[in-house]
Structure formats: C-alpha cells, structure tokens
Design goal:
single chain; alpha/beta; 9-stranded mixed β-sheet; about 40% helix
Length: about 325
C-alpha cells in the first residue's frame, strides 16, 4: 500500500482541555493524504476519550506509550511509528488552518533539486497574550527565511513553530536518536541537524495558531530550554561562524541568569553567570527592542487587520 504523504505526529499528555480543537483542525484539512499518529504519553485525563468522540477514521492510529517519558523521547517513539513521506507536527493545544498541508504540499511538489527537507509556515500566538501576534518575532515584519537556514537558526535562535513545520521523514531519522540531554527542545535539535544538510522552504501565510496558556510546558522548563539551546549550539560548534556561536551562547546564558535573578532562585549566581558568560548590554537592549516591536505591531494592526483564527466546533 502506498504510504501517506504526511504523517501527523501528535504527542498528547493530559491535553483534554484543548485537544478537540486541535484534532478538528487536522480533520478539516483540504488535503486528505495523511495519517494521524496519536501518541498518548500515558495521559491521566480524558484525552483518549476526546479522540474517541470523533468519527472513526482508518487514517487514525492510536498508540498508548509503554511509559511516561519526557517530550523528546516520546516524540522519537511517535516518529518511529510514522509511515508517511513527511512528518507534520501538531501539538495538542495548537490549531492548523484548513489549507496548511495543501499549501506545504505545493512547495514540496515545486522543489526540483531533492534537497528540500524542512517546510514550514507562519504561526500566530493566541490565547493568554495581550495581542494575537507572530510566533516568530525575528521575522514578523519581513519574509521568513528559506533555502540554507542553518546559520540563521543560531543567529535568531529557534524561530520555527513546531506545529507549523513539516520534515522529510528520512531526513528527520538521520538526526535521531535525540541526545540524552535533549528533553524539552526536540524541535530545535531536529531543525539544526536537518538544516545542516538540507534546504528549507516556507509558506509566508499563517498556517498555524500557537496557543499560549498557563498549562504549557515553556514556563516550568524555562531554564532547561535555554540550557538545551546551549547544548545544541555546542553540538554544531565546528560548523558555525565563531562570532555567531559566541553571541548565541551569551544570549542563552544571559536569559538563564536573568531568570535566576528575577525569580529569586539564585540572584547571586544569576548575576555571576551574566557577568561571566552573558551580556549586560544585551539585557539592557531588550526593553527597547520589545517596545519597538510592540509599537510596530500596533501600527500594522491599525493599517492592516490581522488574520482571523479559524473556528472549529
């Protein structure tokens, strides 16, 4: 039997609150050549029951994880079940636009050199945010990067929203398994490893809505995420411009130090980290950069209405 074009990878752990909307956005895709790998990471809520309420579909495959593990190994286990040519990730609290896969399939079909392995699109943050805005603040006022994006992933950090990305399955498996130290940021590891050898294409339109809420994993794992970003940069040290590497490491150490100071977890250690490995000038510049972006968002919003989030019942 011919493999599906896309394997939708959905890792689910206690996602009952928002899961129905995420699933509805997958079933609403205008391109139907997909399978859904629903990987239940030992949920203790009604996540499995949410899936069961949808009409039975032979494209859907439910897997119950043998044990509860961190996101990276759970993601790896789900990817191992994929039969599709491309992996399309959809987190349990995010929402796709109905034409997300169709638009990305067009870019795949248009590629002629065989090097394409990352296809992504623009994502919007919504939920517990003051204004709905781009997930990727580095490129929200310009074009998303395409082609050779390896170095840009360290100049600008990880700007690709996981739920907006598709990865060629064979290319993703080239950079697996995940290193033992990667637990929260499997997406960044995948993008960097794949981009080192392959090219990227992007849909400049919004294809995904990234939900911000108190139950997300970013908050409680803040420092771990930045430490893993440091580990990923160190992993590719030999392939990076030394100036790019130094700046990336300074930024990540600055963010860890600032968090330790502001949270009260380790104020003295945080200040020492910033002085030793980080950058006080970088931290001082952040309020001005954030304020400038906020002003530009308000001006753009007044001149051009933002895209409308799709509604799924």
């Amino acid at each position: 039997m011919r493999p599906p074009r896309f394997s939708i990878i959905m890792n689910v752990y206690n996602g009952e609150r928002f899961l129905a909307e995420a699933l509805a956005s997958a079933f609403a895709q205008t391109l139907g050549d997909w399978e859904l790998v629903f990987w239940d990471d030992r949920s203790t809520d009604g996540s499995a029951e949410v899936l069961a309420r949808f009409p039975r579909d032979p494209r859907v495959r439910y897997h119950l994880a043998p044990e509860r593990v961190a996101l990276a190994p759970a993601r790896e286990q789900a990817i191992a079940q994929a039969r599709g040519e491309w992996l399309a990730f959809l987190d349990q609290d995010d929402v796709w636009t109905p034409d997300k896969l169709e638009k990305q399939a067009r870019l795949i079909d248009a590629n002629a050199d065989g090097r394409l392995a990352i296809v992504y699109g623009r994502a919007m943050k919504f939920g517990e945010v003051a204004l709905e805005r781009d997930y990727d603040h580095w490129h929200e006022f310009g074009e998303l990067p395409s082609g050779d994006i390896f170095e840009s992933l360290f100049v600008d950090s990880c700007y690709i929203c996981q739920s907006a990305a598709c990865l060629r399955t064979t290319a993703a498996r080239e950079v697996l398994p995940f290193p033992a130290g990667i637990r929260c940021c499997p997406d960044y590891h995948l993008y960097a490893g794949i981009a080192r050898r392959h090219s990227a294409a992007c849909v400049q339109d919004v294809v995904c809505w990234y939900r911000v809420h108190g139950g997300g994993m970013s908050g409680p794992n803040y420092n771990a995420i930045h430490r893993e970003a440091i580990a990923i940069a160190e992993r590719w040290r030999a392939d990076l411009d030394p100036a790019v590497l130094r700046r990336r490491l300074r930024i990540q150490h600055s963010m860890i130090g600032l968090h330790d100071v502001l949270s009260g977890a380790d104020p003295a250690g945080g200040l020492a980290r910033i002085a030793r490995d980080g950058s006080f000038p970088y931290l001082l510049s952040r309020p001005f950069a954030i304020g400038s972006r906020g002003l530009r968002r308000l001006v753009r919003r007044a001149l051009r209405p933002p895209p409308r989030r799709p509604a799924f019942s």
